[in-house]
């Protein structure tokens, strides 16, 4: 493969992995009506919330460890192994006959899927310069959104065939693709470069697996990034796990229609958001070091009115319009998280840093997934969705006030 073109070839290869990553975790969100016939515990929204949340808790606990592992070993084999295992778990879910079996398999999926994102994003960040980094990350993120959209068809496929066949098919595809990646995926060879600023994070050769964590938490900017990443994760995960249910309730339509309608709306608009946000950020940061931060802030600002409309809207125009606005805004936010991190953390430690960020975001997601499960049973799902707009506004104000990058691409 041409080394000049490989950074973009890499994005294409990992785009498919990102698609499978989200598709395999997302299909469960829309297949509850089909599965609850065979597994009666799923008739309770609270129990279903527990099933969705166990993935997030395990995923969250594993994320920092996954980042540290990715900074110390071959990211190629970490990505391939991760994909193979979670695809095998998806395949095995088609054989589950009890709630406990599903619970264990979702926990295993949390471990295996957590290994991918820090390794994949740090590999893309290493292969791409600041001039193309946000766009590259943004294109990769469209794979996540496409996977989320295809996962929305889980209920549709299950109604045409069976929920068991749906799991078997999606799992088999991932297993095959993991074998294909063996021949095409490659690691980035690290180069040693001098640090630009003694006050920023520096990682030395030979440091222990956990020493970098201590260095990360001495950086005030990293704490701000951590908070800014975690808070929007509340509505982010809420839309992933409960938007199909919200669409079904607010619009009074069956899940076979609500699932694809909600996930396609978010995925298509997020696709626009990450591409636009990536291009805008890459250009803006060349003229202003806060260009990525401003781009991200504009996106997050768009989600605030969207959450209010998603929660209280009862007409198709209101709900779909809110979904489109949320997707565009969240896409702009999503495309710039790793590029913003690159302004404060060296290449030697970005996977670890993103792993910690992912942990905080996923823990926030686990909390909101459980809360909205109980909210659904109580009939308050829309109201609680709308309340998320308030805390997003707080995060936006803190980010704009305190995050001040000194470099376009910090080298430590």
Structure description:
The protein is mainly alpha-helical and 412 residues long. It has 17 helices and no strands. The chain has helices spanning 6-30, 32-35, 45-72, 75-93, 99-114, 116-127, 133-151, 154-160, 163-184, 211-216, 220-251, 255-287, 291-312, 316-334, 337-341, 350-378, 381-402. The longest helix is centred in the middle third of the chain and has 33 residues, at 255-287. It is globular. It starts with 5 loop residues before the first helix and ends in a 10-residue tail after the last helix. Mean pLDDT is 87; it is low at 192-206.
Chain-wise SSE layout:
Elements: H1 6-30, H2 32-35, H3 45-72, H4 75-93, H5 99-114, H6 116-127, H7 133-151, H8 154-160, H9 163-184, H10 211-216, H11 220-251, H12 255-287, H13 291-312, H14 316-334, H15 337-341, H16 350-378, H17 381-402
Helix pairs in contact: 1-4, 1-6, 1-7, 1-9, 3-5, 3-6, 3-16, 4-5, 4-6, 4-9, 6-16, 7-12, 8-9, 8-12, 11-12, 11-13, 11-16, 11-17, 12-13, 12-14, 13-14, 13-17
């Amino acid at each position: 493969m041409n080394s000049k073109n490989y950074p973009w070839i890499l994005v294409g290869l990992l785009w498919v992995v990102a698609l499978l990553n989200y598709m395999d975790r997302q299909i469960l969100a829309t297949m509850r009506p089909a599965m609850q016939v065979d597994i009666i515990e799923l008739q309770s929204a609270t129990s279903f919330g527990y099933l969705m949340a166990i993935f997030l808790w395990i995923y969250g606990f594993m994320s920092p460890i996954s980042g540290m592992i990715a900074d110390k070993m071959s990211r190629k084999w970490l990505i391939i192994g991760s994909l193979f295992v979670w695809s095998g778990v998806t395949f095995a879910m088609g054989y589950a006959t009890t709630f406990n079996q599903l619970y264990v398999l979702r926990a295993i999926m949390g471990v295996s899927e957590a290994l991918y994102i820090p390794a994949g994003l740090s590999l893309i960040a290493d292969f791409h310069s600041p001039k193309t980094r946000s766009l590259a990350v943004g294109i990769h993120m469209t794979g996540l959104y496409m996977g989320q959209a295809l996962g929305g068809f889980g209920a549709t496929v299950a109604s045409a065939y069976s929920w068991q066949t749906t799991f078997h098919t999606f799992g088999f595809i991932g297993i095959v693709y993991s074998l294909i990646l063996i021949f095409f995926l490659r690691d980035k060879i690290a180069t040693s470069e001098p640090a630009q600023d003694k006050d920023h994070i520096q990682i030395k050769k030979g440091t222990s697996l956990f020493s970098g964590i201590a260095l990360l938490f001495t950086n005030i900017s990293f704490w701000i990034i951590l908070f800014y990443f975690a808070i929007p994760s509340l509505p982010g995960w809420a839309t992933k796990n409960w938007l199909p249910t919200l669409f079904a309730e607010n619009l009074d339509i069956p899940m076979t229609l609500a699932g694809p309608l909600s996930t396609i709306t978010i995925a298509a608009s997020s696709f626009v958001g990450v591409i636009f946000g990536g291009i805008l950020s890459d250009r803006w940061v060349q003229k202003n070091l806060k260009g990525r931060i401003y781009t991200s802030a504009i996106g997050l600002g768009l989600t605030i009115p969207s959450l209010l409309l998603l929660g209280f809207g009862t007409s198709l125009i209101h709900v779909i319009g809110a979904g489109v606005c949320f997707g565009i805004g969240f896409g702009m936010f999503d495309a710039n998280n790793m590029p913003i991190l690159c302004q404060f953390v060296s290449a030697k430690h970005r996977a670890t840093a993103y792993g910690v960020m992912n942990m905080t975001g996923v823990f926030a997601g686990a909390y909101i997934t459980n809360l909205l499960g109980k909210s659904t049973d109580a009939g308050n799902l829309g109201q609680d969705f709308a309340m998320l707009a308030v805390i997003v506004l707080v995060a936006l104000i803190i980010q704009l006030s305190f995050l001040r990058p000194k470099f376009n691409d910090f080298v430590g």
